[in-house]
From TrEMBL:
Organism, as annotated: Pectinophora gossypiella (Cotton pink bollworm)
Name under which the protein is recorded: Endonuclease/exonuclease/phosphatase domain-containing protein
Amino acid sequence: LESHITDHLPLLLGVNLTNISRKPSRTLLKTDRLAIQNEINTTDFSMILSINNANLALYQFISILQNIISKFSYEVKVPRKNRNIKPWITPGLLRCIRNRDKLHKKSKNSPGNIILKLTYSRYRNFCNNLLRRLKRDYEKNELIKAKNNPKATWNAIKTITNSKKVTSTPYELLKVASNFKTSLNQINKFFADIGRNLASEITYCQDNTFAPFLSD
């Protein structure tokens, strides 16, 4: 870009970042700890003691442990009913929600059953109160964990209140002229001259009312 106030070329960069939504994991990595312990107990580590290079010995030791862990680790598919997208929803709470929905379906199919309707109403109220309490406790703990970090505190507040703003991209600035280079030069000139333009609009006061108080 053309610039008369700097000794380097200013740049304007726009990056379009899409919001990444958190999706529940479909797989869960499980590890057989007992098998790993037995494998470590039967593994011969004497070869590591014969290595003179400490860094190489450490690398070899870590490599052996990683291979053992990988050998006895496997992925398990998480059923859809057990996936949760909220960090404060526990497996027990998922079961509670499923039972509530089942009772609702039964009550809907039998509208004349007063006992079933009363059972569903009480269980629904219990489940909803439990949901609200766990959510409130989780949000409180998040704020407590971030109390000494202002940035983390504001991030927690925005997450809790669901008020994260989506910032717009500066692509419109690249369309102020017929081509990108001319657009960037105009933008650069605007920001380079903004201080001078503001200074030129300042009017100096000629009032000498306070002059006697300023004299020695």
